Amino acid sequence: MRHWFSDLNAFRRDPLQVLLDKGNAAAEPLVRLNLGPAPMFLVTDPDIIRPLLKANEEDFDKGKLIHKLRSVVGLSSLTMSGDEYVRRREVLHKYMAKGAVERLTTPMAAEIRAVGAQLARKSSFDPHKALAPLALKMVCIAMFGRQVLSEADEQAIVLAVRLVEDDLADELFRVVPLSPWAAYARNQRRAFARKAMNVVVQRVRAHAHDTSILRALETLGLSDEELSSEVLTMLLTGHHTTGSAAAWLLYHMATEPGLADAVAAEASSVTDWNGEIQADRLKNAPLSLALVREILRLYPSAWWFSREVKRPLEFGGRKLKRGTSVIIAPWQLHRDPRFWNEPDSFRLDRSYGSKAYLPFGLGPRTCVGMGLAMLELQLIALELSSAYAFGRVTPHPVPRPSPSVTLIPPAMQIEIRLRESVNVQASAA
Question: pLDDT per residue over 257-268, tens digit each?
Fold first, then answer.
């Protein structure tokens, strides 16, 4: 007989497999997840996702699973709702929409090349360890502008992010409270991280570029604490998400025969005479774009998100009471054989117009960082493949990712060497 906690042990061992088992075998739009006394359902029908995300906030809100994060990142656009959320989102979207972030192509490409030069000194590298710091630096470029942060500022930000990112993952599905001493240690880490972030934000405000997101947020009249909360949120959500996806991207470029050569040939078609990628030519780079989309299908940065029922209502064929959590899991939807042929296989011939494809959410709640993340990943593919060739990956195949804030790749090593230009020409022929 099923009970409140009947799925909890399996979920703690392997939440990704539980979501697949529950979702792929579902005969109903909503399937119960027994993870505690509070009712929780997994959405298995993509047709009801858009109505859910567009629903009035009097019916569905972000809810307690997301509100838990306020103790980590404060009250920011990630954790709030209502008119203030809309006000902040409008400003962030203006500066982070696809067309707007193209202004960052040249400075981000320069940072990617700098990291590539460091990797070239080695015979092999761990892609996640190499690219997560790069992702953090590129978010900082968007937040403040290039070369605004000192080395000490960058180190302070890295420390702040590391102190709270594990708490962010642990907080979400925790059922049993922490012990008093563990809770005290956690709160001390968070307080120190927020203090470090506040110091950095205040120090760089005078030097931030006029086109930076920090300047845009300042127009909202946010307090110092609110401004720091938004910065910390964007650094946390943009750090491991893009860094993890980039690691998977390099893994597949290294293991799929001919893929890196083909992307390198495409890179040569979107660069100018000086070797700089031109933002207006990226629309003519369909292979690298398809590569990014397939990586985000297999390893969606936001592998789950939730909504909470605010009043008794009927939805998805069920009567839901107030406080019920409704979980949307792109990890499961992206690997459901009802919506994808060979869902576990890496393929670049797919169409991504399906309602079951939502690596950044959907509708009015789509992640405001989508345009920035897509640009980062496409530039990483183009810049690194054009300069370097990848060899053996150890281990191969790699184990399944670890579900944390995002899907963290396992430790691996990818062999790297400088690319000979003749290889690119041959691939382009």
Answer: 999 999 999 999
Last residue of a domain, one of 341, 358, 375: 358
Q: Is pTM, for the whole model, over 0.85?
A: yes
What lies within 8 Å, CB to CB, of 292 at 6+ separation is: 245, 249, 374, 377, 378, 381
Number of domains in the chain: 2
Domain of 201, in residue numbers:
74-300+362-428
Say yes or no: 37 and 158 in one domain: no
Q: Do 423 and 372 reside in the same domain of the chain?
A: yes
Identify the burial level of 223 via C-beta atoms within 10 angstroms of its C-beta, where 0-12 means exposed, 13-18 middle and 19 or more buried: exposed
Instruction: Look at residue 133 in the predicted model and tell me its pLDDT.
Output: 86
Q: Are 190 and 182 in contact (CB under 8 A)?
A: no
Q: Which residue is it, tokens 């193209």?
A: 102
Measured distance CA(289)–CA(282) in Å, rounded = 9
Claim to verify: residue 5 and residue 31 sit in the same structural domain: yes
Q: Is residue 339 packed enough to be buried (19+ CB in 10 Å), middle (13-18) or exposed (0-12)?
A: middle
> Is it the case that residue 425 has pLDDT exceeding 60?
no
Is 208 in a helix, a strand, or coil?
coil
Model confidence pLDDT, tens digit, residues 145-175 = 888 888 888 778 777 777 776 666 676 666 6
